[in-house]
Amino acid sequence: MAETHDYSVAIEWTGNLGTGTDSYRTFSRAHEILAQGKDPIAASADPAFRGDPSRWNPEELLVATVAQCHMLWFLHLCANAGVTVIDYEDDARGVMTMDERGGGGQLTEVTLRPRVTVTEQSMIDQANALHAKIHEVCFIARSVNFPIRHEPEARTL
């Protein structure tokens, strides 16, 4: 039997403004994402859907999850390949395309733009090449149905 890992989170709606969901416009989309032993994440809907722009929305969290998994696997593969990374930043972007019939949409792509600093010039090509291998092992990339593009940039100090 395959090994499994369970991930439990709780969602608590905090947006009842006194009348519940008696109308689409009378409740807040505010909620918290909770997990045992962790600080809550203040979340809401995207502002386009009456959400609070100061809180994380599900679409941002999904893009962040893709970027996090990519980074963690990249660091792992670099360590195994002898590529020493000393800094990693990513400006990830997700695109959601709305359904022409209205009412729904889906993420249709995520683009990762990792900027990586390595210790030696000789490591740059290998560091850039390792990004292409991550889709084979990243748990999140293997779980989504949209393409994940990479625009990596490796450099030395």
UniProtKB/TrEMBL annotation:
<dbReference type="InterPro" id="IPR052707">
    <property type="entry name" value="OsmC_Ohr_Peroxiredoxin"/>
</dbReference>
<dbReference type="InterPro" id="IPR036102">
    <property type="entry name" value="OsmC/Ohrsf"/>
</dbReference>
<dbReference type="InterPro" id="IPR015946">
    <property type="entry name" value="KH_dom-like_a/b"/>
</dbReference>
<protein>
    <submittedName>
        <fullName>OsmC family protein</fullName>
    </submittedName>
</protein>
<dbReference type="InterPro" id="IPR003718">
    <property type="entry name" value="OsmC/Ohr_fam"/>
</dbReference>
<dbReference type="Pfam" id="PF02566">
    <property type="entry name" value="OsmC"/>
</dbReference>
